[in-house]
Amino acid sequence: MKQKPIEDRFHNARNDPSLVVIEGFHPLKHAVRFGAELLEVVSRNLKELAALQAEYAPDIANAIDGRVAAIPDEVFARLGPVPPPTGVMAIARRPNVDLTKLLADLKPAPVILLENPRNLFNIGAAVRAAAAAGAAGVVNTGNLDPWKPAALTSGVGLQFAMPVAQSDDLPKCDRPLVAVDLGGETLPDFHLPDRALLAFGTERQGLSQELLDLADYRVSIPMENGVSSLNLACSVAVILYHWKMGQ
Ligand SMILES: C[S@@+](CC[C@H](N)C(=O)[O-])C[C@H]1O[C@@H](n2cnc3c(N)ncnc32)[C@H](O)[C@@H]1O
Q1: Which residue from 16, 32, 76, 144 could staple onto 60, CB 3.0 to 4.6 Å apart?
Q2: pTM of the full structure
Q3: Domains of the chain (ranges plus CATH)?
Q4: pLDDT per position as a tens digit, 175-210
Q5: pLDDT of 118-146, one tens digit each?
Q6: With a 6 A CB cut-off, is 190 part of the ligand 1 pocket?
Q7: Does the C-beta of 115 come closer than 6 Å to ligand 1?
Q8: Is 23 near ligand 1, meaning CB less than 6 Å away?
Q9: Helices marked H in 94-157 — which ranges?
C-alpha cells in the first residue's frame, strides 16, 4: 500500500490516541532513553542532529542512528504549528498505562494527582518534576491530555520515564490522599505519609471541594506575605523535593 505523505502522517498522529508526536531533540532524547517505541524520526538537518546527539546524548546513538529521515526545511515547517528549533520530530507509540496497577504499587514513592489542570505546559513541567524526584507516576484528570506535544515538550519527554495516566474521575485507591492546598498544615513540619496520592488543584480555582472533603491530610507551602500562590508545577516540585529530602 502506498504510504501517506509525511504531512498527513504527522497530522494524523496528533489526533490518534495510540500515538504521540515528539517535537524537538530533548523530548526525543528522554523518550529514547526511557524505551519509547519510535515509528518515524525526521530531521531538517542531520549534521545538526548528530552534533546535538554527540553533545547531549551519546547514549542514544544506537537507537536512532540510520533511522532518521532527512527532509527539506519547508516540509519540516509543515509538520506542526511551531516547528522545534532543534529541527527534529518523531512519531512514537503511546505506552499503555495501567492506572489500577500504578495506584496499587506498594513502593513508598508518591503518585501525583493533577486535578483538572488547564495548561499543557504546566502539566509537562509537573511531569518533569515528578520524574526528576522519583515519583511513582502522574494521574491527570480533566480534558487536557498529558501526552499532547506541548505537554511532551515542557515535560522534555519524561512522560516515558514513568506511568502518566489520564483518569476521568478522581481515582479510588488505598493511598493516603494529601491535598496540597493553600489552607493546610505548613511545610516543613508536615511529614508526608508513604504511598501518598498528592493532589494539586487547577491553576485558577485550586482543588475542588469534593477532593478537599475526601483528603486525609492538607498541606501548604509557606510563602511571603502578599504572594497568592506558587505556579502549579513549581508547587509539585517543592512538595516532591520535601519528600525526597526526608527519605
Ligand atoms: C496556582 S495554584 C491555585 C491557586 C488558587 N487560587 C487557590 O486558591 O488554590 C494551583 C495549585 O498549586 C498548588 N499550590 C500553589 N501554591 C501553593 C502553596 N503555597 N501551598 C500549597 N499548594 C500550593 C495547589 O495545589 C493549587 O491548587
Answers
A1: 32
A2: 0.96
A3: 6-93 (3.30.1330.30), 99-245 (3.40.1280.10)
A4: 999 999 998 889 888 889 999 999 999 999 999 999
A5: 999 999 999 999 999 999 999 999 999 99
A6: no
A7: no
A8: no
A9: 99-104, 120-133, 149-154
